[in-house]
Amino acid sequence: MEYYKAVYEGGEGEIQEKKSRFIATVFPIQSEEEAITHIESTKKKYWDARHNCFAYVLGTNQEIQRCSDDGEPSQTAGKPILDVLLGEGLRNTLVVVTRYFGGTLLGTGGLVRAYFGATQEGLRNSVIAEKYYAVKLAIGTDYNGVGKIQYLLGQRQITILSSEYTDVVKITALVPIKETEGLRNEIIEATNGKAELEEAGTLYFAKINGEVICFEE
Hints:
Layout: E1 3-9, E2 12-17, E3 20-28, H1 32-45, E4 51-58, E5 64-68, H2 78-87, E6 90-91, E7 93-100, H3 107-124, E8 127-141, H4 143-155, E9 159-165, E10 169-176, H5 180-190, E11 196-208, E12 211-215
Parallel strand pairs: 1-6
Antiparallel strand pairs: 1-8, 2-3, 3-7, 4-5, 4-7, 8-10, 8-11, 9-10, 11-12
Helix pairs in contact: 2-3, 4-5
């Protein structure tokens, strides 16, 4: 995929409904085994809670989707959690919502709203990465072409990973896959075909708090 969203750093969020506590714990995951491990650890942490409901989505195309009501009425807990994950377009993310019963029944509608709202609160307190599929493009040029190339990269807001200045200049840039062909053509035209362009692999990257994070996937 050219682009997808996933949790980079998990967090927690809590809401209360008629004295029932709903605590959402968010985890980034890469496998079902990892999801199960986090679910079990959360159940141990909140061993005295009435319910630990969950949902997770795995795969860049959301190939794996799982959810559990953990004793709540059918479709009132796991599905609302999953609906939030799918609605936010998230991948590789697990949310466990722990409920401490407050003594008052909420009804099916109230439960759906509570689990939905708790999940949203948990995600608000997490760090979400917007991941872009990109080509690591190595650009070789003489000193006459540097300014033109830097201008083109700046116009497209392309991330420069490194610049090496010797007898020639080598720039390594992170180019979103959909922009690769257009940028290649612009650089070739601007340098009269003198620039050397070489693809040095592909990866996903995200900008988080102003920092570029690369994910080898």
